[in-house]
Write a structure and sequence with these properties.
- The structure is a single chain.
- This protein is an all-alpha fold and 255 residues long.
- Helices cover 71% and strands 0% of the residues.
- The protein has 9 helices and no strands.
- The longest helix has 29 residues.
- The radius of gyration is 21 Å and the shape is globular.
Amino acid sequence: MLIIFPDVKKPILIFLAIVFLLVSFIVITNFFSSLYDANGNLISQEEWVLLASEGGELSYGKYWFPNSESWGNLISIWWYISAFLRALTLMIFGILLYKLDIIQGKKDIAFYKKISIYGFSIGLPLSISSIYLLISSGFDPSVVFISNIFNTLSVIPMVLGYTGLLTILNLKLRDSITTKLQACGKMAFTNYITQTIFGMFIIGAFGLDTFSRSELILFVFIIWTIQITWSKPILERFNYGPLEWFWRKLTYLFV
């Protein structure tokens, strides 16, 4: 990805790429939203919609309704497109932060305080609006797309906010705390996959509809605690986490 933007003298090009991707997400989301009614059921009778929906739920399906047998085909297409656009946007934004020496911690404290304040001032209201829409409506299907738009628009400013905050904490907190967080980051691949495995086996064994949303949030914090606890001891004994080591070896096979 760094090869795509070799010249930091024109960060406006990277900025425009980010804006283009976000606008594309909003346009695509609004289009898919128009295919459903307020109850999450397909209302479009266009031929391509009917063909794309064959064999799947004619609603949001399991994406929003836990008791459904499967995801709706079209909501699945939207989800994959939106996930791809979000990931690509964050990758490009990460390149911008790297090229400008922001994520390396090379700026002064005042700079990181500023981007943290600005980032959270914009990101938090958008993120809270998304959550408020969901909770106040009782997680009604009618707010699926609009709440997702608010949430996605909050991502870039929230990244800025967290970048500033975590950089300041990294400089200010005791080493005993920062080294644990750093180790967790260095084992991000292993931690990401193990979090998925925990979810599949623990939540999957009982069924997703067995747990309330508050219990699922508690589950996330328990997993975070486990991963922050085990990352540092593993890296004190080995140079890499298990999946990081495997990925590195796999890479060498093709280099």
